[in-house]
Amino acid sequence: MAAKQPKQTVMEWSEEHDIILLREMISREIFSFKKGSPDRGKTWESIQEFLNQMENPKFHIKEKRGVRDKWNILQGKFLKRMREEEAASGIECEELSEKDTLIEELSERERSFQVKEKNTANDKEAAESVRRKAMERMKDSKRKTSQDSDLDPGLAAGGKKSRKTAPEVVDFLKEKAKCEQTQRQQEMELRRKELEENAKQQRRVLEVMQRQSEAQQQINQALLVLIQKAFGTV
């Protein structure tokens, strides 16, 4: 009789597990890499390996897909709850917990990266369009020059070049300069947006750290009061 295979341990996620996962996602800047890229895949894998090495609390994550799926579940539930609270009239949203604050921060980082990625793609497409138009004008200019050469006996006999193509050359040089200027402006604008986004992310990280510090201070004060009551000093 074949030996029974050992039953695989099913991961049960607690609030503590969730918070540790979210902290790791922020510290490793998971959303600074393109979705589906090898770099993001390696980051998910490194988070999975790190969590599985922890002793308290214990993690049992079979593959990197497990942490990615857990993030999607956490984010989905959080966003749904936020929409419901915003839609409900007369209900004041409670102050966000550490877990909700981390999810909100990660969601904002993910959204910002998607917007930046879309802007980059649009800028590249615009620059490519300008470049294609410049190349088409250059081809038209060369074609016209070739036709003029066929009609100009002096050029056919090796004489001096006709000046008929001078306006086309000037137009091409102007278009080329315009294309290069547009590309430089787009690069500068993209760089400015990146710097602004980095500054925003740094401010959000500082806000998260401040909230965590304040929460810890409140916990310490509550513990101090309990200790004082226990020893009758209050």
From TrEMBL:
Region feature Disordered, mapped onto this chain: 113-166
What keywords would UniProt list here? Coiled coil
Give the Basic and acidic residues compositional bias ranges: 113-147
Residue spans making up a coiled coil are: 176-212
Spell out the protein name for this chain: Myb/SANT-like DNA-binding domain-containing protein
Look up and give the organism this protein is from: Pocillopora meandrina
What broad taxonomic lineage does this protein's source fall under?
Eukaryota, Metazoa, Cnidaria, Anthozoa, Hexacorallia
